Amino acid sequence: MTAVRPDIAPKQAPEATRFPTGFVWGAATAAYQVEGAAAEDGRTPSIWDTFSRTPGKVRNGDTGDIAADHYHLYRDDVALMKRLGLKAYRFSISWSRVQPTGRGPAVERGLDFYRKLVDELLEAGITPVATLYHWDLPQELEDAGGWPQRVTADRFADYAAIMAGALGDRVGTWTTFNEPWCSAFLGYGSGVHAPGRTEPASALRAAHHLNLAHGRAIEVLRGQLPAAVQTSVTLNLHQVRPLTASAADADAARRIDAVGNRIFTGPMLRGEYPEDLIADTRHLVDWSRLVQDGDLAAISRPVDVLGVNYYTPTLVSTPPEGSGDTRNDGHGASDHSPWPGSEHVSFHLAEGKERTAMNWSIDPNGLYSLLMDVTRDHPGLPLMVTENGAAFDDYVSPEGRVEDPERIAYLHGHLDAVQRAVADGADVRGYFLWSLMDNFEWAYGYSKRFGAVYVDYASQRRIPKASAHWYADVIRRHGLPPTGPA
Ligand code: FCB
Question: Counting atoms of ligand 1 from 1, which one is nearest the CA of 234?
Fold first, then answer.
């Protein structure tokens, strides 16, 4: 037996470094952020193509026209994933690539890209995890009214049927939506995301129709998919905290929790919209007309696993009349609020915490609390962390390396939080790092790098950052490495 030298022994006990057997290690991307090939093989513009071409909407006038050219480089990218040891790859499907007008028959050339991608992944032993909608509505459907119109939910169910028919049984998990909160409230409320509308009532209507589209799609998917294939939705549940113990701040937290979280978890997981949400927003929408008979039953069809995305907590207060910065919510500056009915709530950055390049404070305990809160509110619900990660100002050293110790520390802290939540009873099935590689960060364009792999956009060369090698080591060990001397 080899004696363990105390100076190199892991700080944690070996059991503490264990993730459950079968815990899935993945990385995530989204179609518009990585694919490029915006006008190839029959693809038509989505709302993000239109938005990114609108002057002043995206930093530096960046667009997803080329992005990380994943459309052409997917084989190399899958080979890279395999080298890193990834067990699953979460990607999204560009609706306007497979069904350019958002209606009618699919375009085979568009489907072929995803067929080839899935083939390549399966060949490499990597489970495909596909999201149907990561924010890129076909422009034609927006021209017809977009998500504030109920008919868009019907269109989405048709699109889900196309994808289930084309690829259904070869994907491990189908996710209907990524972060519908952003689609509804950044897209139609604050307007910092496509389509850039600033209509509080439309944002609430969009939220309901996204919920309805989710439920309809789950029905379609469940009807077509083998039982072993999982269905899911990914929410960016805000980990809301009141700034002080005052009743006014508790009310601010309740309001943001309602319009940020429970507007989705309520109908999806409980079959009802929260009464306080309805009270806070009834001057904007008539919920009794918006929500039709049968909608809640449709929306609450069970999912097999809930995806949660977490980056940073949300600290809120109710400022005294007429004071406070109500826009500092980390979702981009706008004169319009993405919080309909609760526009007066003020957002804060935690003092004394380190921040990422997004100016988001780093707080792994937020992820722990989020997983525990969902477990408390929805006991037994299997969870998957479908996004977590950080942007930093990465650069390539003269030796050709990208050293990103801050990202390693971020990931280590957050994976440790996941592990603690698992130990305390949360049923977390996997973790997907955001992102596999640097990409188009929405309104920030290419100015923010979230990748574990660096992308040199001029040459499209991929350089795994130190964090990619670190993550590969985590996957190999199926646990966290020792942190080393402080
Ligand atoms: C999430 C999005 C993802 C990425 C990260 C940083 O809100 O789902 O596409 O932009 O933020």
Answer: 8
- Does residue 121 register a pLDDT over 50? yes
Question: Average pLDDT in the 390-412 region?
Answer: 98
CA distance 156 to 97: 14
Q: What's the gap in Å between 278 CA and the centre of ligand 1?
A: 28
Which of the following is catalytic: 142, 179, 406, 441? Answer: 179
Ligand 1 neighbours by CB, cut-off 6 Å:
30, 33, 178-179, 182, 236, 309, 387, 434, 441-442, 450
What pLDDT score was predicted for residue 486?
A: 44
Nearest to 211, CA basis, from 270, 135, 268, 152: 268
169: left (phi over 0), alpha (psi -120 to 50) or beta: alpha
| Angle at 230 (CA atoms; ends 227, 234), nearest 5 degrees | 160
Query: 3-class SS at 27?
Result: strand
Predicted TM-score (pTM) of the model is 0.95
Please report the pLDDT score of residue 324 as a whole number.
56
Structure tokens at 14: 């070996």
CATH of 15-239+253-306+365-477, one of 3.30.70.1520, 3.40.630.30, 3.20.20.80, 3.30.565.10: 3.20.20.80
Nearest ligand 1 atom to alpha carbon 442: 10
Q: What is the mean pLDDT of residues 288-307?
A: 98
Q: Which ligand 1 atom minimizes the distance to the CA of 391?
A: 6
Q: What is the residue with the minimal CA distance to atom 5 of ligand 1?
A: 434
Distance in angstroms (rounded) separating the CA atoms of residues 244 and 303 = 36
Cα 89–Cα 302–Cα 179 angle in degrees, nearest 5 = 50
179 included as an active-site residue: yes
Identify the band that residue 474 occupies on the pLDDT scale cut at 50, 70 and 90: very high
387 carries an active-site annotation: yes
In the chain, count of helices (H) and strands (E)?
17, 13
Distance 73 CA to ligand 1 centre (A): 22
Question: What Å distances lie between residue 18 and 66, 299, 376, 416, CA to CA?
Answer: 40, 36, 23, 10
- The mean per-residue pLDDT over the stretch 226-243 comes to 98
List, as one string, the DSSP characters of 170-193: G-SEEEEEE-HHIIIIIIIII-SS
Digit-coded pLDDT (tens) for 346-356:
999 999 999 99
Q: What's the pLDDT tens digit per position in 29-86?
A: 999 999 999 999 999 999 999 999 999 999 999 999 999 999 999 999 999 999 999 9
